[in-house]
């Protein structure tokens, strides 16, 4: 996590939040890792205030757990959270896509095509671009609250998908990209029913695959051992 300076209109808080989020996604800070504000501030070359604000931002995204007056740690991964996340995505994303497809413009589709092309890159960037592909197709639904919740669900999904596909990158290339291509094709045809059918199948297959890895105990080996903060 390289130190950054506020530039290009970005605030120190945003730079700190973006850098921390990226480090969590890339596994530099594993689930369960305690984070010390002073250490993070030194690494980023910023004061404590933007780091404190970044911690609060990432807590709202579900990436950090803050224990007042005790400490902060990266939120552990759990099969329960993954199940809830994909169940919610199945409902919310399907609803958003259903509203979006009739009003998708060629510009919207071009944006999605760009992310789809990017999803064929290395797993880390591919997962991020794959979720951006999903969001690009849903964004024209023009439902602010729906899209806000969907962004949060995608943030949570990204942690699990990066972890899963880093262990099985071939599965990502063989199945996920193909399913994305099918979703895009039906969106281009304005075929709502078939697009929704493939989306639901895609999300269900992904969660089933994750569940298989959970049942084999792979997740517990990825999380750090639980930590206990001293009582305040």
What is the third-level CATH name, the topology of the largest domain?
Answer: Four Helix Bundle (Hemerythrin (Met), subunit A)
Number of domains: 2
The CATH architecture of the largest domain is Up-down Bundle
CATH class of the largest domain: Mainly Alpha
Oligomer: single chain
Helices, by number, come to 10
User: How far apart are the termini?
Assistant: 30 Å
- Strand ordering within the main sheet: 1-3-2
Which term fits the overall shape? globular
Summarize the structure.
The protein has 10 helices and 3 strands, in the order H-E-H-H-E-E-H-H-H-H-H-H-H.
Description of the structure:
There is one protein chain. By secondary structure, the chain is mainly α. The protein has two domains: 64 residues, Arc Repressor Mutant, subunit A, CATH 1.10.10.10; 140 residues, Four Helix Bundle (Hemerythrin (Met), subunit A) (Up-down Bundle). The chain contains ten helices and three strands. It has a three-stranded antiparallel beta sheet. A hairpin with a 3-residue loop joins β2 and β3. α2 packs across α3 and α6 packs antiparallel against α7. The two termini are 30 Å apart. The N terminus is likely disordered.
Which SSEs are present, and which pair or pack?
Blueprint: H1 12-25, E1 34-35, H2 37-44, H3 48-60, E2 64-67, E3 71-74, H4 79-100, H5 106-118, H6 123-138, H7 144-167, H8 169-188, H9 192-215, H10 218-222
Antiparallel strand pairs: 1-3, 2-3
Helix pairs in contact: 1-3, 2-3, 4-7, 4-9, 5-6, 5-8, 6-7, 6-8, 7-8, 8-9
